[in-house]
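Crash report, auto-generated. Payload:
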Amino acid sequence: MVTGTHPEEIELFDYVEGDVSADRRTAIETHLATCTSCADQVAQVQAGKDVLRDSQFLHLPPRRRDAIFLNLPEQRRAPGRSPAFSPKQLLAILTPVVAVAAVIVALVSTGDMGSSSGDQAASAGGGATQVESSAEDRGAPTAGVRALKSVAGPASEVAAALRRKGIDARVVDGHVEVRGATKDEVDQALGLRKAGDVEIIIVS
Amino acid sequence: MDDPDGPLVKRAQKGDRWAFEQLVERHQHKLHTLAARVLGSQGDAADAVQEAFIRAWLGLPSFRHGARFSTWLYRICLNAAHDQRTKRPTRALEDTFEPADPRDAFVARELSGALQQALGALDEEYRVAVVLYDVLGCSYAEISELTDVPEGTVKSRIFRGRKRLGDLLGTSAQRGESK
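Recovered output after restart:
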């Protein structure tokens, strides 16, 4: 005969974890003594717990850890932080903006521009913004990509091999993205590496 | 929130690669265990971990200290593992065996062992819950946060996952009898 109603699943879980009050524990144990269904569940849960707790961590191979360090791209900056431009870069961006603004001011002062001056200024500002967002999105997939070849992996090793030859390469979603290098340079860097399933893509 | 990784995370957020490398050293094996137990493949797991750390590095400037860094990292790892799984079928073990290090051989043995086979028979939500709780030692709150389900559901998933494993592997007494 089963003593009392069956405990809820979560209550049985808490019982296995030792998270029930002494009174409730006694009541559950009384029930378990007469209910083979609940007793079997508790035994299975305890067995599952034991085997999981006995398992060990599975170590990442050292060369895979090294590949992480080798493949770390330039970090993007959070919105609202200091701009990602050096004084030289800022000068390069601002110079044409200032020049365009000067032309607009000159044209407006001679009456040739009329109401379109605002559009020009907005356009110049948009240009500066575009430069900044390009820097922000450096790690994101790019539209101007060209599949080059597929070689034997793993991808991290292919990227590491290219980086050792001074080529900007990193693993993105299982393929290798290359920036600022030509097909010939990539071919030369990889030498006689066999064909495989790791796709190399040149991002222009 | 008191996060033991906090000081290193703050430095890494400013682009300090050394600090990030310390975080990688600290969490690499836990992340690899999570990915390997979820994916069941050594090579896929290593790819997912590598991808996860690179995503974490890129996302660090946006990381807010409302959550533990490790919880955030586990979520990224689970996403990377999911992407890895949907990208291609699980590799055959012979393709992924990397005998250069004895620890690789240990991982290969573990991933072809009875526990992994039983884990592979679980629904993914149960598998993730038991690995996070019983293997990695995450709290209910952490698992709730990174799987987007209430703590009661987390407990239920752990209960059912363990129960199924116990059913598949047998109780310790039963395992003793079979030796």
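Post-recovery validation: Chain B has eleven helices and no strands.
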